Amino acid sequence: MTDPGTSPRATMRLQFHAGFTLDDAIDQLDYLQGLGISHVYASPIWASRAGSTHGYDGVDPTRIDSELGGEAALLRLVSALRAREMGLVVDVVPNHLAVGGSENVYWLELLRNGRSSRLADMFDVDWQCGDPTLHNRILVPFLGEPYGDMLEQDALTLSVDEIEREFQFIYFEHVFPLRPEDQPRVLAELGLDGGEDGGLTALLETDEGKQRLDEALEAFNTHPDRAQRRHALLEDQHYRLAHWRTANDWLNWRRFFDITELGAVQVQHAWVFELTHGYLFELVERGLVDGVRIDHIDGLADPGGYCAQLRAGLDRAAQGRPLDAPTGLIPIWVEKILEGQETLPDSWPVAGTTGYDAMNVLSVIQHEPAGEAPLTALWSTLSESDAGFHDEVLAARQELMASNLAAEFDRVLQALVRCARARVESRDITPMMLRRALHALATEFDVYRAYGDADESALWNRVQDKARARLVPPDQGVLEYLVAGLSRQSFAEDELWGQARLRFAQLTAPLAAKAVEDTAGYRHAVLFSRNDVGFDAARFVDSVEAFHAFNRHTVAHWPETLLTTATHDHKRGEDVRARLAALSEFGEDAVAEFEAYRTAAQALDGGETLHPVDAWFVFQILVGAWPLELGTDDTEGLSAFAERVVNWHQKALREGKRRSHWLYPDEAYEARCRDFVNALLCSDAGQLARVRLHAFVESVAAPGALNGLVQVLLKLTMPGIPDTYQGCERWDFSLVDPDNRRPVDFERRRRQDAMPLPTLLGTWRDARIKQAMIQELLTLRNQQPELFSRGDYEALTVQGALADHVIAFRRQFEGHRLLVIAPRTTRTLLQGAPGLQIDSARWGETRVLLAEHDRGMTFTDLLGGQVVTDDIELSSLLTVMPFAVLVARAGINGAEQAVDYCEATASNEHY
């Protein structure tokens, strides 16, 4: 466990870019401090591509991005943080750098000098792939047209880099440097060799020389034989230019998922690790960084080894921190997607995950079990299939291995072929046998990757059993051979098998991400609230006991893990998911409303109807994301909302890869979908349908908003460190990126005055209640940090007819007690009640039982003010607020403690 001086109590994720710089963040620190945030959690601040809006396309990890203000701005930000006793968590991207273009000097050096470059092993290039045209060469698939066509076009030009004093080809934003040894040859091609010129450098030193060079280059680029002359030069380079469509089939270097503009970096090499992390360690040593978030840990060769190496480097750097810097261990959080019952390896020296697992467990308990059957039946009718989400994942895996990730699949296959041929006992296993067995194994591999741990036998046995059913008996023997080698049951120290294991792990991670999140997640959606990053979409609802089990595991293993409900990568905002979860309570009513909407959609389509699945998708997003302040006659607001929905749906269509595709979009169908949304939301013809849809949204809005508040309440009180994504302290009806990265109106948030929570509950639509609740609960966390960082967790027993509608638990540390009581699935409870306040009489005799050692203590609700001393009758407790946070301390009167606490929060001006 980290030192309290270093470890965050609460973080806020800020997205930095040219429009919101490090200096801009300084202006918000008073607000964040008043809200209760202890640490700014920054998106990547390292030098990235010009105009980057997210920072994950880094080009140089040895400097701070100039568009963010550079290191000088970082120093100013940290100084301002220190003045407020706050800290900084940075996002590190060790897996990849942006390639192509002209900004990554490491990539350009690799192109320039190829395998002989000092950086030859920085990027994960297969220099000996099976294609003879790529022997010791790099495929560079950045051409917009086939290579042969590009040779003729003016977009591809020979030019000179005057700074590097070298020849290069330019293609739009891309730069392709020529080999240094080719300079005399190029000069000869240009008719500038020999004589008094003395080479390129001499030409560049005089105006006359530059003019001669420009004229020669112009002649070269417009020559009738320019295609042949360009090809002759390019054919001898360390790279091979190619059309962008060749990448999925032919790429001989590893990338991030299927994004060819992001090249994988081999941080497993000590010198690459030091090159890419040295500046981070320097910033830690200078006292500027207090925590580290690691992006896509599963893309690395050895995630556990990397974490150990990073831990050691951070510890060494921390020893030299200034005396005025926070002390203690620098925490590490890893972006790790946990599938099914998978847990984070205990051996990793990290504080926990970035919180997707918490986001999932908070979502799944807010769904109504009775809603699953009618909504699933509707889905089966619309999709004309009984296939479940898992079936869609399996189909997506198979498609991706034949398309987007074909090159990655073949790289694993070639590694396995080398393994088989290296031993006489396996020499008769043919490449096609290996292909079939590998395909079956990767299809059924139901986690992101294996790590080679001793306790992974259950994983391999499960996957092998499922894969065996996909193969004929002879190939089942090949499968057993593969599993034995990949799981280290055999050939544990064999170098070829070590490479095959690495390639397999680096296939299964992107295969899982692309199949689950980016394909099946946009194909199969009984409810989109269950389709998000890190979610188990096959599970519609889970028990409250599963929620308690998750929290007990967190206390025992990862008490400092991050807890999040929204991220820069989420598919739908936290309050969109909360409202759609409430839709599960409407069951048949939701189905009826959809059918009415669908009838209207057909009329608006003029006979050209949307696919039934797309009609359901759009309906869900309209219901889930409709802004609370948006009326049916607000022309400007409806137009803006329509644009957001259209953009979301276009991305959904292309990610789903059924009725459109990123590589070959069906623009006609996309236009039909766009026209329908615009007609529904913006035209006179859509008025009647729009009014009815809005009325239904209004009926879902209150239980959805209460879900949203409960989600916040639980996140801020359960074990772990709560993270708030920028702007989500108000209602978050955002959609997938870039919609979820829109500018935040911090000024509006800063202006919020302190008001009693019960008063704000009555005006819940303006979102002040959510912001005030966050401030109240973070103040409590700051006042009693050890209760939350070290306190135990105990589920409380609930009795009564409505026990299934209650989540209740207890936190305790050295006499400090905290009881949390929250409702779930509240549609029926809210019916007839004003706003979000449940009629207390509806609770009947439902009660929460106090633990034996808590009986006789005085507990005070920090949110509503009620005082209890015995078993908690909900009809008595929840009369002011629909949930409660009860505090007490042994030997101290709870009412007096609550008065002191409320006075402290009331004096805080910065909500």
TrEMBL record:
UniProt-listed SMART domains: Aamy (SM00642)
Alphabetized InterPro entries for the sequence: GH, GH13_cat_dom, Trehalose_TreY
Origin: domain of life: Bacteria
Start and end residues of each Glycosyl hydrolase family 13 catalytic domain: 16-649
Pfam families (alphabetical): Alpha-amylase
Name of the protein in its database record: Malto-oligosyltrehalose synthase
Source organism: Larsenimonas suaedae
Name of the gene this protein is made from: treY
